[in-house]
Amino acid sequence: MIKIAVYGKGGIGKSTTTSNLSAAFSKMGYKVMQIGCDPKSDSTKNLMGGVKIPTVLDQIREKGTDHINLEDIVFEGYNCVLCVEAGGPTPGIGCAGRGIITAFEKLEELGAYETYRPDIVLYDVLGDVVCGGFAMPIRGGYADYVFIVTSGEMMALFAAGNIAHAIKNFGNRGYAKLAGFIQNSRNVENEDVLVEQGAMESETKVVKIIPRDKIVWSAEKQGKTVVEAFPDSEMAGEYKDLAAKMLEVMKDAM
């Protein structure tokens, strides 16, 4: 089982990238599980036909922690991708990072990985603040590799640098490795150069440049990934190429 954490600043297109990756990996024949670790709980929406699934925390609040089954929190989406949303606390009450910890603990307690036996697990993680909960995939032994989605925008690169620094802090303890940046292009001036420079400063590389394309918005308007809605498009090919490049990078890092 390969465990991948995808981090990035809020609004950078991290969930779009992750869900298209899940779809691409599934089309390559892998059994995939995607776990959304953002309080917005919309990471898997485009794998579920545009529908937001019940979150782990919602189900715990509704049914009680001792009355939850895997069927309550794991849902099958496009091409059999297994979808989970950690969820967040009631707005204004509680810690979103703690919610992620609670969700991870419940998945382990119920034996989710042993039951479904996924080949690839993708954690879609908000990266504006790398606090204890949001750092769980890095330091908790949940992820093997981390990819950071960024653009050439200043705040996106700033967040990417912070995430990379956090990974280095845990690196000597045998936790997740930084495998590279994924450039989700915003067509800012000198974007390729800026992202390449940011990657070098974080002692990593740009794995893939994803071009900006309106077809992504068209797919999401249908509640689908590009890989599902427009499987023969150039953009679907970009996501499939990203999936292949990520597998190659991780193989080289082993």
What's the helix and strand layout?
Elements lengths: L1 E7 L5 H14 L4 E6 L18 H8 L6 H4 L1 E2 L5 E4 L10 H14 L2 H5 L3 E7 L9 H4 L5 E6 L3 H18 L5 E8 L6 H11 L4 E5 L3 H8 L4 H4 L4 H20 L1
Parallel strand pairs: 1-5, 1-6, 2-4, 2-5, 6-7, 7-8
Antiparallel strand pairs: 3-4
What does this structure look like?
With 254 residues, this protein is an alpha/beta fold. It contains eleven helices and eight strands. It has an eight-stranded mixed sheet with strand order 3-4-2-5-1-6-7-8, with helices on both faces. A hairpin with a 5-residue loop joins β3 and β4 (82-85). α1 packs across α11 (234-253).
**C-alpha termini separation:** 13 Å
- Output mean pLDDT: 91
What global shape is seen?
globular
Q: How would you write the strand order of the largest sheet? A: 3-4-2-5-1-6-7-8
| Major sheet description | 8 strands, mixed
β-strand number: 8
Q: Beta-sheet strand percentage?
A: 15-25%
Gyration radius (Cα, Å) is 17 Å
- Taking pLDDT < 50 over at least 5 consecutive residues as the criterion, the unreliable ranges are none
H/E element order: EHEHHEEHHEHEHEHEHHH
Give helix % range.
40-55%
Helices, by number, come to 11
Structural class: alpha/beta
